[in-house]
Design goal:
heterodimer; A: 305 residues; alpha/beta; Rossmann fold; 2 domains; six-stranded mixed β-sheet; 10 helices; B: 476 residues; mainly alpha; four-stranded mixed β-sheet; 20 helices; 72% helix
Chain lengths: 305, 476
């Protein structure tokens, strides 16, 4: 598989602070890759190095076949973490301006801007100053500014932050559309649900280091499965069941308790369930819970917020 | 179109399309026009003072004062006519008017002006009369003491029938003037009347000493012929207005360049701060190189500055041609003939580039105006130094301190335009220009580096860290 981006042993140091340490990974072309990690994990610094905005302190980065992203900047679209547009500009002018900087002729840029705005339901606002648009609309305009030149690689830094659920869903659809036309998408986030729904591949960072690199299913395996038991049974009774690991308990609003017991790597919880029935414990509901990407994230980052 | 030009065009249009920009263009000349013409308009609109003179001396002071005031008015009219000739048709017209006035009075002077500039002659209006002398109230003839006359004056002024009443009392060398006036703060005629009566007393004292009126007139007419000469004058000796014009033009250009550079650099600073605070800089950096962004912004704001200068220059030139065509001709000759316009252009370009690059680099570190004020405070303090010394250049353009300061590159663009008119040594012109150009190149390179570091920097950075990061070109 051809890679759109390759990082080899990349590090970034600010004064005495090591923001990124010896990170290597690939972003496969034509796929959606999630770049995950808690705040301060080094995601933004890594993305800036990929885009050529920052030079790495050590290591090599290849982007769309070039050793420096600035050589291929016209083939890259970028949405930064903190959004901003010229407030007095109209959406059509803003999109055409940024497309123009990426080499799209002005007339063509305006044509594309109109089409994109219409497609996103913003046709009515295309000639209003951006300062008069809602935050969600302005964010859409900024994303369209990063896409109007039809880039081969789209880098989105925390694209979902600040969006309401409706706009988050719309953005997910847009990211799928971008990938559907063959472009590579690399986006950072610390909201695992988006990555879980969108990504073919995830790269997980913590404290400046890469802690995981693979597909979502493999990532989930990093976290243990759990057996959920609900009823009038108490924690001591659950702890006495065989084959269960750490247990967390919480009271249920309707009365009784909800116990979540971690299972060992090879455990299925069958022994515990059999024992619970044999002991005639007061059990109203049980569930074998598969780990989510969020669970894997917590485990892989060592619980770092 | 290159990315640099696209960024420049956006920068230019972003300001030019705002109403505020055009209002600010109009505002300055408007304020200057109002502030310069307001006193004149107030003077013109004011009615002449209605003055009555109560003469208790019995020595004919009242008619002598009225006569002297009429003669003063004639002299003022003659001076105004010569000034109109100079501004509308130049020094030759002024001299012709002066000669005509000597031979045939103001009527002849006006005819002489009409030969040079008929419009100016037709439009000429004599200066406003400060006061008209009216006869005092009839009962004033019965007044024998200053107190009696004062009571009449108090009533006439208080009831606004007169604006001023002058009571002249005493005799010969012991004369007292009591001026009753409606204007409490600054009686309009006070100094004129004091001077006029002093002159009358002096003439009469000389007459009593046996000096004839003819001798007195001759003595009054005595005036040395004064020639202002300079080897630097165009004529080789006699200094004309055109010889002095370059110095004044240089001073005006120095102030203009300073204000234009400051204005342009400030616009650029605000623009960078806006982009930095609204996070647009990061997007721009992913779309264009730092030199393209900085160059585009500097070029765009330069376009704005030139638009402002262009509008002001055209408006000023039109006003000059309309009101003072002679001065306009001299100005054109000075600017083009001595090549001053090219010097001014070069200093404007290099000065603007120097400060614009510096302000853009600083702006990239600022998210608010307060941040900018902290960083720019020392720079603005340094920038104000040339302003202090500029006006000194008229009196002594080659003073050692001015020569020394001209060698300091941040001051060169402002001090050299002021000095250039007085033909400073060629070595100084060339040397300061080269030093200024080299400094500008170095400053642009440094600012480009600072801009890149600052654009991606977040949070507050102390000066030591800042310089360290710029040196290593390390953002974050």
């Amino acid at each position: 598989m051809v890679n759109a981006v390759t990082l080899e042993g990349v590090s970034k140091t600010y004064d005495d602070f090591h923001a990124v340490r010896d990170v290597s990974f690939e972003v496969p072309a034509g796929r959606i890759t999630g770049f995950l990690g808690p705040n301060g994990a080094g995601k933004t610094s890594t993305l800036r190095m990929i885009l050529g905005l920052l030079p790495p302190t050590a290591g090599r980065i290849s982007v769309l076949g070039a050793d420096d992203a600035t050589k291929v900047r016209e083939r890259i679209g970028f949405l930064p973490e903190e959004r901003g547009l010229y407030k007095r500009m109209t959406p059509i002018d803003a999109i055409a301006f940024f497309a123009g900087l990426k080499g799209v002729p002005e007339a063509e840029g305006r044509k594309r801007a109109m089409a994109l705005l219409e497609a996103q339901g913003l046709g009515f606002a295309m000639k209003r100053p951006i300062k008069d648009l809602s935050k969600g609309m302005a964010q859409k305009v900024q994303l369209l500014s990063a896409l109007a030149h039809e880039p081969e690689l789209v880098v989105l830094d925390e694209p979902f932050s600040g969006l309401d659920p409706v706009n988050q869903q719309a953005l997910e659809a847009m990211i799928r559309e971008i990938a559907a036309r063959g472009a590579t998408v690399l986006f950072s986030t610390h909201v695992m649900q988006h990555a879980e729904r969108l990504c073919d591949k995830v790269v997980l960072m913590a404290r400046g280091r890469k802690v995981f690199d693979g597909d979502v299913a493999t990532a989930r395996c990093a976290a243990p499965r759990a057996l959920v038991l609900e009823g009038d049974l108490v924690a001591e009774e659950v702890a006495a069941l065989p084959g269960l690991g750490e247990i967390t308990s919480e009271p249920l609003p309707e009365g009784g308790w909800r116990h979540v017991a971690r299972l060992p790597e090879v455990g299925t919880g069958q022994d515990a369930l059999k024992a619970a029935f044999a002991r005639d414990l007061s059990l109203r509901r049980f569930e074998l819970k598969e780990p989510s990407l969020h669970d894997a994230f917590i485990v892989l980052t060592g619980g770092q917020a | 179109m290159s990315r640099l030009l696209k960024i420049a065009r956006r920068e230019y249009l972003a300001y030019v399309r705002t109403v505020g920009f055009w209002l600010s263009i109009i505002a300055l000349p408007l304020v200057m026009g109002i502030s310069s013409s307001a006193p004149l308009m107030m003077m013109k609109s004011a009615k002449p003072e209605r003055l009555a003179i109560i003469d208790l001396t019995g020595q004919g002071f009242a008619p002598a004062i009225a006569k002297a005031m009429a003669e003063d008015q004639d002299r003022a009219t003659a001076r105004a006519l010569r000034a109109a000739a100079l501004s509308s048709a130049g020094p030759a017209a002024q001299e012709a008017v002066r000669k005509a006035q000597l031979q045939g009075g103001d009527a002849a002077g006006r005819e002489a002006l009409a030969r040079f500039n008929p419009t100016a002659a037709a439009r000429f209006k004599p200066p406003k009369v400060d006061a008209v002398v009216l006869p005092p109230p009839r009962e004033a003839q019965a007044a024998r003491t200053p107190a009696e006359a004062g009571a009449i004056a108090r009533r006439e002024v208080g009831e606004k029938r007169l604006d001023s009443v002058l009571i002249v009392s005493g005799r010969d060398t012991d004369v007292t003037l009591d001026l009753w006036s409606r204007n409490l703060a600054a009686p309009v005629l006070e100094s004129d009347l004091r001077q006029t009566v002093t002159e009358i007393m002096r003439e009469r004292a000389l007459a009593r000493a046996g000096v004839s009126q003819e001798t007195l007139n001759k003595a009054d007419a005595l005036k040395p012929a004064f020639n202002s000469l300079s080897p630097k004058a165009a004529s080789g000796a006699k200094v004309a207005l055109r010889d002095r014009l370059p110095t004044y033009v240089g001073l005006a250009a120095g102030f203009l360049l300073w204000s234009m550079v400051m204005t342009g650099a400030s616009i650029l600073l605000n623009s960078v701060i806006e982009e930095k605070s609204s996070k647009i800089l990061e997007v721009l950096l992913s779309s264009a190189s730092v030199p393209e962004i900085m160059g585009g912004k500097i070029l765009g704001v330069a376009g704005l500055t030139l638009t402002v200068m262009g509008v002001w220059a055209m408006a000023g030139w039109a006003a000059l041609i309309h009101f003072a065509p002679g001065l306009a001709g001299d100005l054109a000759a000075v600017l083009l003939g001595k090549g001053l316009v090219f010097y001014f252009g070069a200093y404007l370009v290099v000065g603007y580039l120097m400060y614009a690059a510096l302000f853009a680099g600083v702006g990239a570190f600022c998210e608010t105006q307060r941040d900018a004020q902290t960083l720019l405070g020392p720079i603005i303090l340094v920038m104000s130094i040339p302003i202090i010394f500029m006006s000194q250049a008229i009196r002594s353009p080659d003073s050692p301190i001015l020569s020394t300061l001209s060698w300091i590159p941040p001051f060169t663009p402002f001090l050299m335009p002021v000095r250039i008119a007085s033909d400073p040594p060629l070595m100084q012109v060339v040397g300061t220009t080269i030093l200024m150009a080299v400094t500008t190149v170095a400053l642009v390179a440094f600012s480009t580096r600072a801009f890149h570091v600052g654009a991606l920097a977040t949070g507050k950075i102390d000066l030591k860290t800042l310089i360290g990061r710029i040196a290593r070109k390390q953002a974050g």
